[in-house]
Design a protein that fits this description.
CATH architecture: Up-down Bundle
Strand content: under 5%
Oligomer: single chain
């Protein structure tokens, strides 16, 4: 058991190190493109939440686990509540990233209300799946301190499946939207090609980590918590990279905006006016 706990701990520490490394190597971009944004910019606060909420959650997790490994007695009831809350932490981070992806696609389709409604339903479905999973898998009297170290909440299975469906839908709509843009003659606009590139890469990364963590949790392996820890770090890193990449696009010119909700229609309008 000691060897397994040590391997799990090493894997989790590696995920935290990756997240902190990503923060450091992109800090200059964060200062240049994010800190300078006005206070009323939703993207600014979206970025800060995605990045630093993940850091806070990861550091808190490692501190609690360090106390458990050191042999200090902890009351089981608070640990149960923290264990349950892990899925909510994952959902909040994933939702923050999904919102950015969804807004991009929503803009690509010219703010189509049906696309917006579909995305809202998907987010609601994820939340329902998460709550159902939590209610059906509440920790029982056999819950021990080391369960925090060696197990992932089974509610992740419910949420993971729902999140995978959402990611597939976002990718499909992105590809279709790109093909429509190509057909209409504005498929080479930088933001459109960036959406396809980033959308495909983020889908592959998030989908794989979701599948790994969901399957590992379903199988009950002791190494599932490593997948969950990497899930938090990768989701946060991916979400921040998407926002930073968007901010580094060249200025489309007077009358246009780099904001995700307006740039696609503006580019399309300028192209057609030309």
């Amino acid at each position: 058991m000691y060897r397994v706990v040590r391997e799990i701990t090493d894997g989790k520490i590696a995920s935290v190190s990756f997240l902190l490394w990503d923060v450091l190597i992109t800090l200059d971009q964060e200062v240049e493109y994010i800190w300078s944004k006005p206070r009323n910019s939703w993207m600014k606060w979206q970025f800060f939440f995605t990045r630093y909420f993940a850091v806070a959650a990861q550091v808190t997790n490692r501190c609690i686990e360090g106390v458990i490994v050191s042999g200090v007695y902890l009351d089981t009831d608070p640990l149960k509540r923290w264990f349950i809350s892990e899925i909510f932490v994952g959902n909040l981070l994933m939702t923050a990233v999904e919102v950015v992806l969804m807004v991009r696609v929503y803009a690509l389709y010219g703010k189509n209300r049906w696309i917006g409604a579909l995305f809202c339903l998907m987010l609601i479905a994820e939340a329902i799946a998460m709550v159902v999973g939590v209610v059906r898998n509440l920790p029982d009297g056999q819950f021990k301190e080391f369960n925090v170290l060696t197990t992932t909440p089974y509610s992740f299975i419910y949420y993971g499946i729902a999140a995978c469906v959402t990611q597939i839908a976002i990718l499909i709509l992105t590809v279709i939207g790109y093909k429509l843009a190509v057909r209409d003659g504005w498929g080479k606009v930088p933001i459109v090609t960036l959406m396809l590139r980033d959308g495909s890469a983020i889908f592959l990364i998030l989908f794989l980590v979701l599948i790994f963590t969901t399957v590992a949790t379903m199988c009950g392996t002791s190494y599932a918590p490593i997948g969950y820890s990497w899930f938090l770090s990768i989701v946060a890193s991916s979400g921040c990279r998407i926002i930073l990449n968007m901010q580094q696009l060249p200025d489309p010119g007077p009358g246009s905006s780099i904001q995700l909700t307006t740039v696609i229609p503006d580019h399309e309008r300028h192209h057609r006016e030309a």
